[in-house]
Amino acid sequence: MTFNLTRRAILAATVVLGLAGTAAAEFPESQITLVIPFAAGGSTDVVGRIVADRMGQELGQQIVVQNVGGAGGSLGAGQVAKADPDGYTILMGTVATHALNPLILKQKPYDPVADFAPVSLLVLVPNVLAVNPAVPANTVQELIDLAKKEPLAYASSGNGTPLHLSGELFKSMAGVDITHIPYKGSGPALTDVLGNQVPVIFDNLPSASGHISSGKLRALGVTTKERAPSFPDVPAIAETLPGYETYSWNALFAPAGTPPEVVAALNKAAVAAMADPAVAERMKEFSATIVASTPEELGEHVKAEMAKWEPVVRDANVSLD
Amino acid sequence: MSTKPKDSTDLAAGLLLIAAAAFFGWQTMGLPIGTSLRMGPGYFPMVLSIILFVLGVIITLKSFGREGEAFGRIAWRGILFILPAPIFFGLTVRGLGFVPALFFTTLIASQASIRMKPLHALVLAVAVTILSTLIFSYGLGLPFRRFGPWVQF
Amino acid sequence: MELFSNLAMGFSVAGSLANLAFCLIGVLLGTLIGVLPGIGATATIAMLLPITFQLEPVSSLIMLAGIYYGAQYGGSTTAILINMPGESSSAVTAIDGYQMARKGRAGTALAVAALGSFFAGTVSTFLVAIFAPPLTAIALKFGAAEYFSLMVLGLVMSVALAHGSVLKALAMVVLGLLLGMVGTDIYTGTPRFTMGITQYADGLNFVALAVGVFGIAEILRNLEDETDREVMTKNINRLLPTRDELRQMIGPVLRGTGVGSVLGILPGGGAILASFASYTVEKKLSKNPREFGQGALAGVAGPESANNAGAQTSFIPLLTLGIPANPVMALMIGAMIIQGIVPGPNVVSEQPELFWGIIASMWIGNLMLVVLNLPLIGLWVKLLTVPYFVLFPIIMAMCSIGVYSVASNTFDLYAVAFFGLLGYLMSKLRCEPAPLLLGFVLGPLLEENLRRAMILSRGDASTFVTRPISALLLLMALGVLVLVFLPQIRKRRDEVFTESDA
């Protein structure tokens, strides 16, 4: 009993001291866990690990990457939403975890705005519309014309993913019907398009880029408003369908209630990491555009993305329980 | 009836399969079946549940009319201590942390054997915990919290 | 002879002191972690992946590849010693390998597995080197219809896995298929059989299922009557196989290598079938098929070779297309991207050192494995002399860590307990776990491809027979079905009351 009391006393004392002392000056005192809500090896994982490595150097503490995959990113994001708001557990959020899932899921495991303290929008990643070279369409317009003449199908990395919804947005803006064929991830979807089992694909530019530059896939358009710097010859879909814009993005989030000084320290480290030439080089190879925003900008970004996707999700009638 | 020979193992297997088929079939009820062009999420499971049900019925019927082997002894003590071990680890690995959770998991599992003496179990649990912590946490750097929030000052 | 100059370049890359060292470290780490119960290749790679990110691209991929086949090898060791497979492939090895171990032939089983794997690894490495591009073209001919037919063939073959009642084996396959349906339907996003638990949205974890129905069920069986039964026979015979045993394994190893090499190329899950298919072939060809399930040498030699051959050739789609054939390959792709290599068809031409270096390192790694493991067999077999009541708590601890480390999902641990109970119940009711496991693995693939094929053909079911490869596979399935059931029917006529009811 005495032991318990002593321990409780120490505990209380620590709490008081912790409150009295300036948390920001000491942050971080120990290693930080970066939760990546997808399996290791995916594009979010790659971005996350590159950033975590460099940010750890900035902060003088190791950042340990933990992959908590499942349910389209909802499990990992939900875990961080419920974590202690001390800045030692942070999330690599994406367009899926912070815009699409909350709109699609009937049971909401977390609130993308209220449950998180935004840290920094790191990068934007373009998606790409590509076809098998055997498909008689060399431009977006030709594809639209073809789709009006004969039934077509497009592959995506899964139901409710940004790529699926990019396809649905394309269909509604172009006024065509193309059958959606979902796969379990980008890899199998690409395989079937390379083998011309399915003619069309919406994919992340990074995962498709090798096939585009080797000519095994014909890129018709990127989904960003402007052309991607890594593929200046590939037009933007918006050049044919004005106003068309989708992209994937990666951003850091802490749980809501994290002290502002801690968020500021994390943001400073993230911005510094993204400014590193080696990181910039990696991101360029990855076709990703560096943003490195402020926490406020990320907060606005999340709201804007949810507003943008809401009608698309509604029109496409996608919902997951 | 009771004098009639029957293979009680197969009878139990058949009945359990029927129960499993019924469970899956019942769970499939709420799912859209769709058409064979656009199969719904319920199409395939429904077909499978029916097949499983039929197989269960055949196994049940065939169990009558011949002798089978006996069940043999049941490892109640094993069930009582082995199965809770991973559950305990799952419940506590985040709260207690890796080290205490693993210690108790090993301790619980070791109680499944009547040959294990309490002191030996303790020694074994300590040894397993220390070695695993060295290998997995320090050696491989797995992102486990060694001591979780429940045991922190 | 471009091949030889390419291979020479590969060996010079892989043979550099640093790369040899990384290959050795990878193989060693893979074996050591993989040999822990319940931890297979996927879990091992997930654990060790971050270590490789700091290295040069070639070195990191060489090390990862080493971890991969090292872990696969280690997984087979635990399958043989304690009936605890960490991968679908070693689940087949467990069937006869563990029975051999119980009969005091653990050393022989391990040696046969090592030698078979090495031979298969050598042959398939050369296959990769010579035929990678043309084989890729074949793999791309496989669409949804072909995969569906391939899975049907696999399921039909799975019945041969059973050594008891065919009916019960069929029921187990179907139950496995249903368990494989648990999770989110990929076409509509509807959760199925998840009981509202989001943690099961991506399906039940394979390792949890395999560890439960094989390993934990076996522990429970062994705890039934501790007082009057030893788990392992104490008189362990010699460690290395006799000349006669070596002769017996030649056929199975050759056939296993062939089956595994072909199936490994298919990116849509062909490698999963490799060891199952080889087991079926061996059982059908064997003069005394009754021996299977009781510790048949061919039941270890064939599947182990097939498994390793498939593991090697599954690098083909990765290297030539940049497409992952399995989760481990997906991790390798991630490793390449992190190193700044764009995976895809250009890797061969733009990074020949990388491509050929990895191929050469595969062979070197396999050689290291066999050299490392043959002497280790003595040690592993000694492990069996540790009293069982000391061994199984350690097994439980390792399982818990292994299953948790795959995805940090605590619900996977609850699944382990559930499947342990299910597996024990199954063994009491004399239902076998291997067909269940195969059904579980194939179920999602079967459904996914069936539905995709039907959408692509716009609802025309004839797509399965009008596409030549698909039709051929279905014919083969029919052939196997006849082979399996014909003897059963004939036997039924001969002896009306058999103990193995067909």
Automatic annotation (TrEMBL), chain A:
Alphabetized Pfam families for the sequence: TctC
UniProt key word Metal-binding: no
Cited Gene3D superfamilies: Bordetella uptake gene, domain 1, Periplasmic binding protein-like II
DNA repair listed as a keyword: no
Keyword entries, A-Z: Receptor, Signal
Range of residues in the leader sequence: 1-25
Transmembrane parts of this sequence: none
Annotated family: Belongs to the UPF0065 (bug) family.
PANTHER family: BLR1237 PROTEIN, TRICARBOXYLATE-BINDING PROTEIN
Protein name, entry field: Tripartite-type tricarboxylate transporter, receptor component TctC
Organism: Paracoccus laeviglucosivorans
Lineage: Bacteria, Pseudomonadati, Pseudomonadota, Alphaproteobacteria, Rhodobacterales
Automatic annotation (TrEMBL), chain B:
Organism domain of life: Bacteria
Alphabetical UniProt keywords: Membrane, Transmembrane, Transmembrane helix
Classification via InterPro entries: DUF1468 (IPR009936)
Keyword Nucleotide-binding: no
All copies of domain DUF1468, residue ranges: 12-144
Transmembrane intervals: 40-62, 74-91, 121-140
The protein, known as: Tripartite tricarboxylate transporter TctB family protein
Organism: Paracoccus laeviglucosivorans
TrEMBL record, chain C:
Domain DUF112: from-to ranges: 20-438
Record InterPro entries: DUF112_TM
Chain ranges passing through the membrane: 7-29, 35-53, 109-132, 144-162, 169-188, 200-220, 253-279, 315-342, 354-380, 386-404, 464-486
Keyword Iron-sulfur attributed: no
Keywords assigned: Membrane, Transmembrane, Transmembrane helix
Keyword Transcription applies: no
PANTHER family, A to Z: TRICARBOXYLIC TRANSPORT PROTEIN
This protein's name: TctA family transporter
The organism of origin for this protein: Paracoccus laeviglucosivorans
Top-level taxonomy: Bacteria, Pseudomonadati, Pseudomonadota, Alphaproteobacteria, Rhodobacterales
